[in-house]
Predict the structure of ATP synthase epsilon chain.
Amino acid sequence: MKYMTVQVVTPDGLRYDHRASFISVKTLDGETGILPDHINLIAPLDVHEMKIRRIDDENHVDWVAVNGGIIEVKNNLVTIVADSAERARDIDISRAERAKQRAERQIEEAESRANIDEVRRAQVALRRALNRISVGNK
């Protein structure tokens, strides 16, 4: 069976390292599915839910909340370098919910002051919190 090694690295170290038969990521150009023997690729990633189909069981799927970064595919090694990434099993849903509420309040406050930069930062924080909630609920 053909497979590829998938590694997710953050400033905190290696967050994920398994063999997979398929992964789905979201680049800035859209959704991309990657199978073994994929052409070499380097692309920026969006905030998204990465789906990884492991080789140990066709029904075994891991979900990882990836908050941007880059992907490199070369010789059946897929490396994701991200500011932060969390596996579904590691996500604290209540903490993510609090981050979501905090971001929503920051958006309202920044909009009332017409501070576009603060609005954009809070919108990014909201997208990340929603991504973590979605992955954590899988």
